Amino acid sequence: MSEIAPSKRRRAPRTSYLDGQLLMAMPAMSDKRFARSVISMCLHNAEGAMGLIINQRADKVSFAKLLGELGIIEKDAEEGVPASVLDTTVQIGGPVETGHGFVLHSSDYSTGKATVEIDPTMRLTNTLDILKAMARGKGPTQALVALGYAGWAPGQLESEIQANGWLSCAADPDLVFDTDLELKYDRALSKLGVDPSHLVSYAGRA
To answer: Cα–Cα distance between 66 and 79 in angstroms, integer?
Structure first.
């Protein structure tokens, strides 16, 4: 896990940017990596945008295996780690820096400078400290562990939204941290009163 660059820690004005929002891919999305994806936007400013896909499972990686590979626990030695933590689903956060981990979590945990406040209810941390805390049962109340992220160059996301590639709505922690990944896309659209079968759009890219 690598620390977020200081230049990207600045909070973007809520009136202009989408940090703290959810993006939902339109049904015509041509990039299969983002088909039916729901993305929790973590950072969005004049320098670009960054978010985590919150409904794609990393099928070959368990949280226990991840902790073992990082040396946080002995491999195959899960004793002492809370069962609720071991049940954490590792997700695919996006196609950028897939070897790096990110934890989107509730606001009751912080590591200081390595933690970014997204909104009053959610924060983002990408150092090993949070995984060590989770393994001891001292981590945040709610957490989503993801490998990689979705990123956009300056102005790219705005262009994709104008081309009808994405819909957006306010983030809902209950939806973000829900463990039923298969329902998140339809749930997110329902927040806008949208029926996926009625959507007709052009595809976007990220």
So the answer is: 15
SS3 78: coil
β-sheet bridge partners, residue 124 = 104, 116
Whole-angstrom distance, CA of residue 54 vs CA of residue 31: 17
Query: What domain range is 75 assigned to?
Result: 6-198
We report the CATH number of the domain holding residue 83 as 3.40.1740.10
The whole-angstrom separation of Cα 102 and Cα 96 is 12
The model's pTM: 0.85
Tokens of 180: 């039923």
Number of domains in the chain: 1
pLDDT mean values, one per 10 residues, the chain (206 residues) = 40 60 90 94 94 95 91 74 88 95 96 91 95 93 96 94 91 94 93 74 40
User: Using CA atoms, how far apart are residues 67 and 58, in angstroms rounded to an integer?
Assistant: 15
